[in-house]
């Protein structure tokens, strides 16, 4: 029987054999993974755990917070604040950064996360997930401030997500490709099920919220119209559509079998560049997709090259199978 490789062993080998990650980063990733196991337990309880429904508050995005949004946020903060590997954390659910309290040692890493992405799906038992991104704190300066987080996605040193679906699965990159680990609940550990995941360069499947069609810009409308025209249209092939309205689930499908995911700018809120957040949604997902051979753009620029100006800034996202993403980008540059 082939030996099971745990997340711990994979990370130790990335540290020892490949020299990709220092021990502090390895520890950080293991702590985040343990926190995701706790979140998974809470999510799996559902109504039995009294964790469904709203918390009666709004987050910095002005979105109604679900009870599980707050629970997941607290789990990640409490799991990571004492270990000595972090200087601070930032979360979709918190207006400002969370600096590690003085009673704990400060580390050199910054952790950003969307503690429970897709939370509108919680109450209807559809897959949701935790998205995380790790940056290094800029050298030199004492203390840590919000501006230390404002680094482009290409500066990430680790990124991943944990999807709470039929399986609880952690997908991770430290810059050496993408590895997938499924939670073995009998052992209580994440077990490597695939590494060096690859997204097919071409696809026949797109993911977008079609109800927004009348609000899209011309390049996006052109791309989707051509997909809908099918074999008789300019693409010469039929397309399928999927939209789970949970970025983690849609991206996981694309990492697993290809596809293109689009949440573009639209006219509903013209002053916002998009709905999704750059720092803890688009950047980690964009790096994972690129590490798997795909591409991620805002239509005009590689997502990982975007220099953030605000912690919670939003961005237009087109990511997935490289040839499709490049086609959409070419339609944007043609206008
Ligand atoms: P819509 C979930 O709220 C989320 O942030 C992403 O996970 C998802 O892709 C998107 O919003 C869904 O948005 O407008 O289709 O509900």
Query: Mind telling me the CATH superfamily name of the largest domain?
Result: Fructose-1,6-Bisphosphatase, subunit A, domain 1
Beta-strand residue percentage:
15-25%
CATH class descriptor name of the largest domain? Alpha Beta
Question: How many angstroms separate the termini?
Answer: 57 Å
Instruction: Report the mean per-residue pLDDT as an integer.
Output: 95
Helix content: 25-40%
Enumerate the distinct ligands. Answer: 6-O-phosphono-alpha-D-fructofuranose
Backbone shape? globular
**Biggest sheet features:** 8 strands, mixed
What is the CA-atom radius of gyration, in angstroms?
Answer: 19 Å
Residue runs with pLDDT of under 50 for 5 or more positions: none
In CATH, the topology of the largest domain is named Fructose-1,6-Bisphosphatase, Chain A, domain 1
| Computed structural class | alpha+beta
Order of strands, widest sheet: 4-3-5-6-7-8-9-10
> How many distinct folded domains?
2
């Amino acid at each position: 029987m082939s030996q099971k490789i745990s997340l711990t062993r994979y990370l130790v080998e990335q540290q020892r054999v490949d020299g990709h990650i220092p021990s502090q980063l390895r520890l950080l990733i293991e702590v985040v993974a343990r926190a995701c196991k706790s979140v998974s337990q809470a999510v799996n309880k559902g109504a039995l755990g009294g964790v469904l429904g709203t918390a009666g508050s709004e987050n910095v995005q002005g979105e109604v917070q679900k009870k599980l949004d707050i629970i997941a946020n607290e789990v990640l903060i409490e799991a990571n604040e004492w270990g000595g590997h972090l200087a601070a954390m930032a979360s979709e659910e918190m207006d400002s950064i969370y600096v590690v309290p003085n009673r704990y040692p400060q580390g050199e890493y910054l952790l950003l996360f969307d503690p429970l992405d897709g939370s509108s799906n919680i109450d209807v038992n559809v897959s949701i997930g935790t998205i995380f991104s790790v940056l290094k704190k800029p050298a030199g300066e004492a203390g840590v401030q919000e501006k230390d987080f404002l680094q482009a996605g290409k500066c990430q040193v680790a990124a991943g997500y944990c999807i709470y679906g039929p399986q609880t699965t952690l997908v991770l990159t430290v810059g050496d490709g993408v590895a997938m680990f499924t939670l073995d609940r009998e052992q209580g550990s994440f077990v490597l099920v695939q590494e060096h995941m690859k997204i097919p360069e071409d696809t026949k499947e797109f993911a977008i919220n079609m109800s927004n069609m009348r609000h899209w810009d011309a390049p996006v409308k052109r791309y989707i119209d051509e997909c809908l025209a099918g074999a008789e249209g300019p693409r010469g092939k039929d397309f399928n559509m999927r939209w789970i309205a949970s970025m983690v689930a849609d991206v996981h499908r694309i990492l697993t079998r290809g596809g293109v995911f689009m949440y573009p700018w639209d006219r509903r809120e013209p002053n916002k560049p998009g709905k999704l957040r750059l720092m803890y949604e688009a950047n980690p997902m964009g790096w994972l997709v690129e590490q798997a051979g795909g591409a991620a753009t805002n239509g005009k620029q590689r997502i990982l090259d975007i220099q953030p100006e605000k912690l919670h800034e939003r961005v237009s996202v087109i990511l997935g199978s490289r040839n499709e993403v490049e086609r959409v980008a070419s339609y944007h540059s043609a206008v």
